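Below is how a single chain appears once it has passed through the pipeline. First comes the sequence as given, then the structure the pipeline wrote out for it. We keep one example in the README because the format questions we get most often are answered faster by looking than by reading.
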Amino acid sequence: MLNEQLLLLITTPLYIIVIGAEIILSNLHLKKYYTLKDTLMNMYLCILNGSIDLLFRAVYLVILIALYHFHFVSFTFNPILYWFLLFIFEDLAFYFEHRVDHYCRFFWAVHVTHHSSEEFNLTTGFRSSVLQPLYRFIYFIPLVLLGFKPLDIVFMYSLTQIYGILVHTQYVNKMPHWFEALFVSPAHHRVHHASNIRYLDRNMGMVLIIWDKIFGTFQEEVKEDPVKYGLTKQLENPYHLTKIIFHEWKNISTDLHKNIPLSVKIKYLIMPPGWSHDGSTKTARQLRKELFQSEKTILKSTGGESGN
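Resulting structure:
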């Protein structure tokens, strides 16, 4: 806990400096990356998320500490290896958590808040999925069983979150090739926040982009397909707090009240966002397949090359 407090003391002035610099530069260059309403909403959602995390932390730490007694690996012989492997495995755990958040509608209903802004700047990184702390610890369970201490896991998560926030920027175009081969870059994360069909559910990593490349969720930013931020269906009132947090739950409720079998209702909870029993709406994978087929047809007729 002391480590996290120290981390907060260090990062707070860092965030103030870099966010302030981005605001000033964006205004000077007439980029309009920030609006007051959106920035305040990002901060408010962050405070809500942090408050729930603090209130629930005692519960999930008790669970993780109890499970730690069953760990079957010990790293007492090499502290450097311990922290290195904790970083690797924690980043991998985040990747799978993030992937589930995108591929299961029940969890997408929580995570969608983070993607609901049509702006993309450093404060977007603070636009938290408010209810996520209630289940995030589940992905830490394999780590405690591998011998990583619960408080160290929470600290490492907070540490990697710093990097995750800093990639929310449009001011960095491309990083060196060697860097983008290993690490998530701002260009990679711009893709993740895009509502373009090509980019949906892509680039899930927090720090390392290698997980996306290994598990097939990587997508480069394509020059011919400029990023459009936000959701595929934008909110009618993007500054209404309860609608931002709960709008997808309302949509789920509507689907569950349809006159359909229970097994189909369950699919509306566990299948990817956009799934429908009658094909009236489509998942990102279905939409992307249609897009690529269309592009191939156009390429064949023009004799061009794909930009995928």
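The two ends are 45 Å apart (CA to CA).

See the next section for the split statistics.
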